[in-house]
Amino acid sequence: MDAMLVTGGAGFIGSNFVRYVLNCRPDTQVVVLDALTYAGNLANLEDCGGTERLRFIHGDIRDRDTVDDAMRGVDTVVNFAAESHVDRSILDPSSFIEPNYNGVCVLLEAARRLEVQRFLQVSTDEVYGHVPAGFSVESDALAPRNPYAASKAGAELLAQSYYTTYGLPVLITRGGNTVGPYQYPEKVLPLFITNALEYKPLPVYGDGSAVRSYLYVEDHCSAIDRVLRSGEPGNAYNVGTNYEVSGRDLAGRVLETLDRPAALREFVPDRSGHDLRYALDCGRIRALGWRPALDFDTLLDRTVQWYVTHRPWWREIRNESGFRSYYRKQYDERGQS
Ligand code: TYD
């Protein structure tokens, strides 16, 4: 049996990846290490219980002893553990540097000592910064423009240095905007869907012209699996789609799909330093045989349906005081100071 450590495995993409591995790699034992901070939720793994192939450890990737315990006997490490919301990083940058950079430092040290065979650092298209035209290729310079993106770019560089200096077999994936089941409802699509379901306004930043390319979470998981199986250590792989959708259109599509009044779309002050476009050239991962299975219409429908049928999951989150105080700060008090 192989053993894989999935850090951040109770978060959004992490929990979907754990489910994917349990289903698609019958000979793999999965160890999840998760600090269960605000967006990590054991309920995300509820349907993965009942198998001896899954072990859960509650702990922080910055804690050396916990990391050693979790990584001992493991062949592969996939690091999803991170604070990931740009708007929160603007409100509180240092809380991003700690786990996203210093945490990766601890993981890499342990991986080197314990001679892990594959270390995959899950990164983001945001490391390229704003891309006004054309498509980012992996050899482009990293030019992050917000604290979250900078923390992820820093972590990549550190991981890359472990490959060059110590020969640690590091792989990096740079994912596009991922959506689907169990996404914490502060990111744009689940926020728009859950607000629409509650007949609350959908806050579109600025004039709504910023575009993102959306990727279904299961496609993101299959891409990571593909890179683990056939990626070349030392390389980064872009993972995305080319369905570019503006914030304005996304809000419109959600309202249309849920049959809610178009007037719920509301334009609010823009995000500071807003990257108006990310766009990935995915030729490198396509050459490994990966393709996204879902087009934009299908991923939107599936995601909307999941939130429609999982109201208790997101209602509990939206009722938490942490979510409510963030929402107040981010939306109700914005532009008023
Ligand atoms: P987000 O989900 O935060 O992802 P990213 O990390 O790519 O910024 O936001 C996606 C896009 O949606 C981005 O252009 C900002 C915009 N957006 C809104 O218009 N309103 C919102 O309330 C949020 C959270 C995002």
How would you sum up the global shape? globular
Order of helices and strands: EHEEHEHHEHEEHEEHEEHEHHHH
Count of domains: 2
Q: Output the radius of gyration.
A: 19 Å
Spell out the CATH superfamily of the largest domain: NAD(P)-binding Rossmann-like Domain
Distance between the first and last residues' Cα: 57 Å
Question: Mean pLDDT, rounded to whole units?
Answer: 97
CATH class category of the largest domain: Alpha Beta
DSSP summary, beta strand count: 12
**Helix content bin:** 40-55%
Number of helices: 12
Structural class: alpha/beta
In percent, how much strand structure appears in the residues? 15-25%
Short description:
This protein is an alpha/beta fold and 337 residues long. Helix content is 42%, strand content 18%.
